[in-house]
Design goal:
9% strand, 171 residues, 3 strands, 67% helix
């Protein structure tokens, strides 16, 4: 694995950090109780096709990804509060560095878990290669017809323009 990572242009130090985070995620997955993991609530949409159901391990990875996303939101809120408190005052360089490290770490952890999750989903369902995918209610893995979404967005946009035009003519 290290050789593959190095071939992709990642330094040995970055490779160590990556391996540490991967090991951490595997350890955290072992601690996740499926009873505590909630399925996404999104319903199947027009143009989506169910290709399978997430495995238990992918559900655990989904839970870790969700927790890291929630942590990222919490870090953002804490930093915003701290910046508001310190507004107008001189912020010590050490404080700026600490805020930067906290913010960068939270982003990197979430991005890593997100990439790992989607990479593993694609590995579990090879038939979805090259397609947009999502996870819906009851852990359904779906492919998404992006052209259908684009067409719907265009039609919705045109309808909105016509509605505004009709309103302005009535006034």
């Amino acid at each position: 694995m290290r050789i593959v990572i190095l071939e992709q242009g990642i330094s040995p130090k970055q490779s160590e950090k990556l391996m540490f985070l991967l090991k951490w995620m595997v350890n955290e997955m072992a601690k996740v109780s499926l009873r505590d993991v909630k399925s996404p609530t999104g319903e199947l949409q027009e143009g989506e096709k169910v290709v399978g159901i997430l495995t238990d391990d992918l559900k655990r990875l989904f839970a870790i990804r969700a927790a890291l996303y929630a942590n990222l939101g919490s870090v953002h809120r804490r930093l915003e509060e701290k910046i508001k408190l310190l507004a107008g005052s001189e912020i010590p360089e050490q404080e700026i560095k600490a805020m930067h490290v906290l913010h960068t770490t939270a982003h990197n952890e979430y991005q890593m878990s997100n990439s790992a999750f989607w990479h593993c989903v694609r590995g579990e369902f090879p038939s979805i290669a090259g397609q947009e995918i999502g996870v819906r209610k009851d852990w359904q893995v779906v492919t998404i017809d992006s052209m259908l979404i684009i067409k719907k967005d265009i039609i919705d946009g045109i309808n909105e323009i016509f509605a505004k035009y009709s309103q302005s003519k009535e006034e």
